[in-house]
Structures are given as structure tokens and as C-alpha cells.
Write a structure and sequence with these properties.
The protein is of the alpha+beta class and about 425 residues long. It folds into three domains: about 120 residues, no CATH class; about 150 residues, Serine Threonine Protein Phosphatase 5, Tetratricopeptide repeat (Alpha Horseshoe); about 110 residues, Immunoglobulin-like. Helix 1 packs antiparallel against helix 4, helix 2 runs antiparallel to helix 3 and helix 10 crosses helix 11.
Length: about 425
């Protein structure tokens, strides 16, 4: 229901309620006085008749037509009836008289009084204010870049007029981060940190700005800030995310999976961000398994069966046009999948070196003990150069793949020839 019909329905219901209240009062107040006059006239006629009857009784007694006893009895009956009519007239006179003026006054004042009392004691703003529920939040349009820039300008003016307001510096830093204005965000976070050195959101935001302005390196001061944030607030989301990324960068995949799993538990599962974190967490767990970091923790029935293991080997080359985009700090991931979009069967992280780089994937690098290379005849082999150290493909990463690789092949030639969009 839109706003117009909501307001119309509210005031319509209010009008009906007022009309019902007046309907109980006005008919009595607007009642015609003619009925009262007619009742009075009938009482006067009855009393006149009583007087005539009394004269007749006296005449009949004087003529001897009635004995004294009969006269007294008839007289008593007439006096009683006359007294009843007189009392009825007195009651009518003492009863409250209907007033048309009072009726008109109530008809005008009651609706005004009702509206005034609602305006004073009620909540008129609720008729037009948003409820702020999930549907409203979902219908609200996301802020545009222009909106954020206007907010940044307002926050800059606010920090200039009140440079000791830490919350304003924090909001300014966060807004700049939304637009990936990391140098400006870093400067604002530095100011916010001076004023709010113990606030977890400031600590984790400051760490992110430091990392984004230093080639995504979290080692050193950034990770120190992250640890401080998580110590003060163990469920700090930005802190958990950065801690997971730092563990990835250090090839501590089991620890990365733990941080990311804690983060995922705090998120709404249906959101794209939560799905990305879940994928990263699963990839970390798989890489930890491939590296053998969780081998000792497996239950006996989860151990990979001993004996001959299937494997795939070969070399990785990079296309000439992409060689200039490869950095010494980049990371290479090798993944064997069951089909182009199937689950990973084996994965390995290869240190950057001189191309062509040799690689080998086998059952010991299985992502799941129940789903290994030996269970398949053909797989898809993917090589990806990650710029961020994240095993999940990111825009700007370099990638190559070979379809239909026979399990057991030892001369697979992988060429990294495309940029991930």
C-alpha cells in the first residue's frame, strides 16, 4: 500500500470513529421540544378532567346519588391520579433539557479535540516516516559516487571546524575507502587513530588503509593493528578478514580458514560478500589439506588410501604479451578440477621462478579424501597468477587452462594467456 492510501485509510477510520461517537449523543441533544410540549399539554388536559370529575362527585353527593363513603373513595382515587400526573410533570421539569446549542458545539469541538489530542499525545510522523524494516532497507537505493563525494565534502568541512572529533575523522576515512581513495583514507585514519586509539573499527580500518597503500602488504604495522582490534573485539569483521588474508599471504592456510570461518558465521549467508568469504574459507581449507597441515588431524577412515597415486605433471608457461605483468611477489596456484566448473580435486601453490615452471599434482593434494584424481579419467588443469595472494580468482589475475587432461599425463603444457576480467 502506498503512502497516499495509507494516510487516506487512517483519516477515514478516524472520521468514522468520531461520527459513531456523535451518533450516540446528537440524537438526544437534537430531539425536538415538540414532544415535551405535547406531553405537558396532555398532563394539563388530564388535570382539567380530574377537576371536572371532582365537581361531578360533589354534585352527586349533594343530590344524594353518592353516599359519603362512596364520595370519599372516589375523591381519593382522583387525588391519587392527579398527584401522579403532577409528579410526572415535576420530574420532567427537573430532568436535563436537551440543548441544540450543546449539540452543535459538540459536533464542532469533538473532531477538533480528537485531532489535537492525537497531534499532542500520538505520533503523526508515523504516517509518513519510513518503518526502517528490511523491506524499506531493500527498496532504498544504494548511494551513488556523487552521493558519497557530497558526504566526503561535508565531513571534510566538519573535521576542519572541529578537528578533535574522532568520529568525524573515522567517517571521513570510511567514506574515502568506499571510493578506493586510499591515500585520503589513510590520512583520515591517522587522525582518527590519534583521537580514538582503542576503537576496534578505527584499528582495523587503519590497518586496511595501510595495506592498500603499500601493495597489499599486511606484515608489520597493519597486522599489529589487526591484532589489537581483534583483542578488543574478537568479532570485528574487518579484523577477521584482514587476519585471514594475512594468513593466506604467509601460506598459513589452516589459520586463514579459521579466521574466515569465524567471519562467515557473523554474516548473512545469502549476501554476495558472505558467499565470497565462504569460497575463500573453503579454498583455504583445501590448500591446508593439500599442504598436509591437517593430515595428522584426519580420522582413520578419512586417510587417503596408501598405494599408487594418480598424478598429473607438466610445465607452466606465460604468453609473451603478459610477461610484463608478472611481478616477483605474485603467487602461482595450480588446480585440477572435475570439469570446467567442477569441484577442485587437487591444488598446489608454486613459488615464483623462471618460466617454464614445472608442476605436479597428485592424490596427496586432494581437496577431499573421498574425491581424488584417481576417481577421474579426465580433468581440467588451471594455472593462475594471483596478484593479491588470494587463491580465489580476482580481477587482474592472470590465468590459463587446459581441458580434457588425462589423469596420469606427465607432459601437460599450460600457457597463462588471459587476464581475469
Amino acid at each position: 500500500m502506498n503512502l497516499f492510501w495509507s494516510i487516506t485509510l487512517f483519516w477515514g477510520a478516524a472520521a468514522v470513529a468520531v461520527a459513531l461517537a456523535l451518533a450516540f449523543v446528537l440524537p438526544f441533544l437534537f430531539r425536538s421540544r415538540q414532544d415535551e410540549r405535547q406531553q405537558a399539554a396532555r398532563r394539563d388536559i388530564n388535570l382539567a378532567v380530574y377537576r371536572d370529575q371532582m365537581k361531578d362527585l360533589k354534585t352527586e353527593r349533594a343530590n344524594g346519588q353518592l353516599s359519603e363513603e362512596q364520595f370519599l373513595a372516589s375523591k381519593l382515587e382522583l387525588e391519587t391520579r392527579a398527584a401522579e400526573d403532577a409528579l410526572a410533570q415535576d420530574d420532567g421539569a427537573s430532568a436535563p433539557q436537551a440543548s441544540r446549542r450543546l449539540g452543535f458545539t459538540l459536533a464542532a469541538v469533538l473532531p477538533i479535540a480528537a485531532i489535537g489530542m492525537y497531534a499532542w499525545f500520538g505520533n503523526p510522523g508515523a504516517l509518513t516516516a519510513s518503518s526502517g524494516g528490511p523491506m524499506d532497507a531493500g527498496m532504498a537505493a544504494a548511494p551513488t559516487e556523487q552521493d558519497i563525494m557530497r558526504m566526503i565534502e561535508q565531513l571534510e568541512a566538519r573535521t576542519q571546524s572541529n578537528p578533535t572529533e574522532g568520529e568525524a575523522w573515522e567517517a571521513l576515512a570510511s567514506a574515502n575507502g568506499l571510493l578506493a581513495r586510499w591515500p585520503q583514507a589513510l590520512e583520515a585514519y591517522q587522525q582518527a587513530y590519534q583521537l580514538l586509539p582503542a576503537k576496534p573499527a578505527v584499528l582495523s580500518g587503519y590497518a586496511e588503509a595501510l595495506a592498500m597503500t603499500s601493495n597489499l602488504v599486511l606484515a608489520g604495522r597493519p597486522i599489529e593493528l589487526v591484532r589489537m582490534a581483534l583483542q578488543a573485539e574478537p568479532d570485528n569483521r574487518k579484523g577477521l578478514e584482514l587476519a585471514g588474508i594475512h594468513a593466506y599471504q604467509n601460506q598459513e592456510f589452516a589459520q586463514a580458514a579459521q579466521f574466515l570461518d569465524r567471519l562467515y558465521q557473523l554474516l548473512t549467508p545469502e549476501t554476495p560478500y558472505a558467499q565470497d568469504i565462504l569460497s575463500m574459507r573453503n579454498e583455504a581449507a583445501q590448500l591446508a589439506l593439500a599442504a598436509g597441515s591437517t593430515q595428522a588431524a584426519r580420522a582413520p577412515d578419512q586417510q587417503v588410501t596408501a598405494g599408487p597415486q594418480a598424478s598429473i605433471g607438466g610445465s607452466v608457461q606465460i604468453a609473451d604479451e603478459l610477461k610484463a605483468q608478472v611481478g616477483e611477489q605474485d603467487t602461482i596456484y595450480l588446480i585440477a578440477r572435475a570439469g570446467e566448473s567442477g569441484p577442485p580435486l587437487a591444488a598446489a601453490r608454486v613459488a615464483m621462478g623462471t618460466f617454464p615452471l614445472p608442476f605436479s599434482l597428485n592424490d596427496s593434494m586432494a581437496m577431499s579424501p573421498a574425491n581424488v584424481l584417481s576417481n577421474h579419467q579426465e580433468v581440467v588443469v588451471v594455472a593462475r597468477i594471483s596478484k593479491s595472494g588470494n587463491p580465489i580468482a580476482q580481477p587482474g589475475d592472470l590465468e590459463g587452462r587446459v581441458m580434457g587432461v588425462k589423469v596420469g599425463a606427465a607432459d601437460v603444457k599450460l600457457v597463462i594467456d588471459r587476464v581475469v576480467p
